[in-house]
């Protein structure tokens, strides 16, 4: 069974976007995964196709209505649908490689792209939406975040990457950032490829790569090391 993604959005024309190109695009054409973009406004009940209203309690901006979103979600994900329901939200749990792998191993995902100030909490609770964040910053809407999530997932589907080992050695797969990479030419603007990488000694190469991963992680993402070793001082 292929991975089936359904995106609920006010801008379905944003999909597949970049997902229609390169590895993801070829996998989409091959049927390794499928993508449906659903227009949320189709489930509005007034002639203006209104999907938002003023926030209860006052304040700036508008809030996406629970009733309209519930109809859209129920259409895309009827009772019995095994796919998780995700809401792309800056207040969500940070997306990491472990969650990406869980999603890639599953049947797919139904992804709601928020807009305006946010989504009525009642539909989040009533439809069991899992809030997911791709970083500590604010976007104009959830669509770019949904594209990021799907790109991360699709590349892990069986047969999408030419070399499965490539995915196993990347950043975050082992809790560390990835080591530096080099290729021809051997000399570039006075900079040489590290000698160990052209030594042919695979044991030394593996040790160098591990050491470089640890160094880069300590410099750039010490939080990853702290998470891996919570008792370390």
Provide structural commentary.
- The termini are far apart.
- The protein has helices at 22-30, 66-76, 97-104, 121-126, 143-154, 164-168, 202-220, 222-228; strands spanning 3-9, 33-39, 52-53, 63-64, 85-94, 108-113, 118-119, 130-133, 187-188, 191-192.
- The model has no long low-confidence stretch (mean pLDDT 94).
- It is elongated and about 70 Å long.
- The chain has 233 residues and is α/β, with parallel strands linked by helices.
- It is built from 8 helices and 10 strands.
- Helices cover 33% and strands 19% of the residues.
- The chain has a 5-stranded parallel β-sheet with strand order 2-1-6-5-8, sandwiched between helices. A 3-stranded mixed β-sheet has the order 3-4-7.
- α3 (97-104) packs across α5.
- It has 2 domains: 3-154, Alpha/beta knot, CATH 3.40.1280; 171-228, Trp Operon Repressor, Chain A, CATH 1.10.1270.
- GO terms for molecular function: tRNA (guanine(37)-N1)-methyltransferase activity.
- Its EC number is 2.1.1.228.
- Homodimer.
Detail the topology: elements first, then pairings.
Blueprint: E1 3-9, H1 22-30, E2 33-39, E3 52-53, E4 63-64, H2 66-76, E5 85-94, H3 97-104, E6 108-113, E7 118-119, H4 121-126, E8 130-133, H5 143-154, H6 164-168, E9 187-188, E10 191-192, H7 202-220, H8 222-228
Parallel strand pairs: 1-2, 1-6, 4-7, 5-6, 5-8
Antiparallel strand pairs: 3-4, 9-10
